Structures are given as structure tokens and as C-alpha cells.
Amino acid sequence: MEIRSSFGRNINITKELRKRYDKLQKGFLFKERDAKNIFMVSMVLGYINKSREKIVNPSPLLNITSFSDGDLWLMVAISVEGKKGLSVLNNISEIKKIASEYANAGLIYLEELSADYGTGEGLELAILKKAKENIKKN
């Protein structure tokens, strides 16, 4: 399966979310990085916390070209798990929606971690700790 061509052109988030991404991009950890990095970290945090948040009035604000094939496959894997089945593989729109919902919820966690630990090494260590805790659970 050639993943990139299946995903279309964009991932939808809201303009309000994009402003929050822009604010996080000013911090040390995400400085000079694409917003897709914030999307991916947020998606994983949402997934780890088993939290999805619907996106109201989505806009195509993240271009697929900024995502690696590995990023796209991670979206697929998380969506399969989120849907509890392989049927989602036939619906790329649903995969993008699920990934965006996890990222939307995870952004709240990322902002909380950023408020607690700053935007540098403390934030990076807090995210790694969360990931390790999740690995131990599973």
C-alpha cells in the first residue's frame, strides 16, 4: 500500500488550534520545527491518555508533504487501535479524523506539560517519561 498518495493533501485542524500550535512553536523544543511535530506529539499524548476530542469546523491546515511515511503509518496504526479493527483501513478520511481527534485532545496535555515543565529539556523529559510509563503498562 502506497501510503502517501492515499492520504490526500492535508490534515484538518481548526484555525484556533493552529494558533495554539504557533504559540508552542515559539518554545525551545519546537522552535524551527514544522507544526507536524506538534501534531504528532499531541496525537501520541492523546493516544497514551486514551483521549479523543472532536474537531469543530476543521480546516486543511497541515500539508501531508510535511509528514514522513512513518508518521502516516503511525496515524494508521493508532486509528486501527482506536477503531478496534481493521475496517478503518478502507477509509483514509476516518484515519485522518481519528488521528486529528487524538492530536486535538493531546494538545491539551502538551500545553499542560509545557506550563509545568517549560518548553525545553524539562518538557522533553516529561514527554519521554509519559511514553515510558505507557510502555510499562502495555
Task: Please characterize this protein's 3D structure.
The protein is mainly α and 138 residues long. The chain is 63% helix and 7% strand. It is built from six helices and two strands; from the N terminus they run αβααβααα. Strands 1-2 form a two-stranded antiparallel sheet. The chain is globular. The model has no long low-confidence stretch (mean pLDDT 86).
Query: Radius of gyration, Cα only, in angstroms?
Result: 14 Å
Going across the biggest sheet, name each strand in turn: 1-2
**Average pLDDT score:** 86
Query: Uncertain regions: pLDDT < 50 for 5+ in a row?
Result: none
Shape: globular
Strand content range: 5-15%
Please report the distance between the alpha carbons of the first and last residues: 28 Å
- Provide the succession of SSEs: HEHHEHHH
Number of helices: 6
Largest sheet geometry = 2 strands, antiparallel
Structural class by sheet pairing and helices: mainly alpha
Specify the helix fraction band. Answer: 55-70%
Count all strands and give the number: 2
List the helices and strands and how they pair.
Elements: H1 3-6, E1 10-13, H2 15-25, H3 35-48, E2 59-63, H4 69-83, H5 92-117, H6 121-137
Antiparallel strand pairs: 1-2
Helix pairs in contact: 3-4, 3-5, 4-5, 5-6
Structure, briefly:
This protein is mainly alpha-helical and about 140 residues long.
